[in-house]
Amino acid sequence: MVETANHISKLPGNKTSIFSIMSKMANDHDAINLSQGFPNFETDKKLKSLVTQAMKGGYNQYPPDAGVLELREEISKKIQSLYGRSYNPDREITITSGATEALYTAITAFIKPGDEVIVFKPAYDSYEPTIKLNGGVPVQIQLTGENYRVDWEEVKKAISSKTKMIIINTPHNPTGSILDTKDMKELENILTRTDIILLSDEVYEHLIFDKNEHQSASKFPGLAERSVVCASFGKTFHNTGWKTGYCVAPDHLMQEIRKIHELTVFSVNHPMQVAYADYLKDPKHYLELSGFYQNKRDLFLNLIKDSRFSFTPSSGTYFQLLNFSVITDEKDVDFAERLVKEKGLAAIPVSVFNINKKDNRQLRFCFAKTDETLEKAAEILCKL
Ligand code: PMP
Ligand code: GLN
């Protein structure tokens, strides 16, 4: 007898990602797509020609499973210069198929049935299903206030003998909030003398605004010794479709992560890694990003300043939340759908990432777009 889908499903109730849904809706209705987070401008042609060169140079077979050594060496230098911690390229850095694989691999390497993992809500949508797939239990904590801050007292209360891992994400998707030095020190104090692993999703480390500095877990010794830090070249270098990222962690954690990495993908596309190794040699390529995206954020916010949306400027990422409660009483999911179908503009409803789908009447807009696209989008928003 054929079993019902629910019976055989390991993730019953898990729906198609909102990013796929909204991008498809945007395509179907020929709408401007500010929903899924990806740039609509080209990656640097210098980087593309480095990939072509690598392909022509014969880098077309499996690279080492941990990644091209030269790239791992460049990552190690970059982290040392930005955050002051030394990671051994041979044993503590692994190139992954995007940050998605790094997150999946890190959770799968450590979470056993019954383990609890603290997740801050709203949360990026890959964390909780991966925890559940491994039999773990997500323990949700709501970020609070207009700026979506962490209440560290709540974190202390949520920690139990079963807590195996805490996942943080700074700069934060979808809210654009960031953790500051005080937050990281609080976390460091809380985790001292525990065995809790910190999974730090830092894919937007180079997209941080208003002279704020990114506070990487690798900067704080008490955190770095227990942390897996995940990063994404796709986000940093405007090529999300190349699906290349990495994670760094102390040796004893990384050896476990590599076991899962070998089983899931074994290794990651070779020519891209050779190209990134060369491209990373010039720090300008990532240090100029914050200014570039801050200009985009400011352009977008300036264009909609007379609209009926209200907002707190994003502190990092390439996302901006806009509150629409003055415009309509609709649920955010319904408003987002109507915005695509009737007005030709796609955004992400934030409730899908919240505890119990709490609706704060906010949509997330991606401003990693050409100025022309942002102008067209703003024109629509200003008419609402
Ligand atoms: N974490 C966060 C917070 C993200 O927004 C994304 C989306 N890019 C990822 C992880 C996954 O990154 P990648 O595209 O490199 O797999
Ligand atoms: N990180 C991207 C976002 O938040 C989307 C990634 C994806 O499509 N899974 O929009």
Automatic annotation (TrEMBL):
It comes from the Bacteria. One of its GO terms (molecular function) is kynurenine-oxoglutarate transaminase activity. InterPro entries: Aminotransferase_I/II_large, Kynurenine-oxoglutarate_AT, PyrdxlP-dep_Trfase, PyrdxlP-dep_Trfase_major, PyrdxlP-dep_Trfase_small. Residues 30-380 form the Aminotransferase class I/classII large domain. Keywords: Aminotransferase, Pyridoxal phosphate, Transferase. Its cofactor is pyridoxal 5'-phosphate. Pfam families: Aminotran_1_2 (PF00155). The keyword Endoplasmic reticulum does not apply. Belongs to the class-I pyridoxal-phosphate-dependent aminotransferase family. This is Methionine aminotransferase.
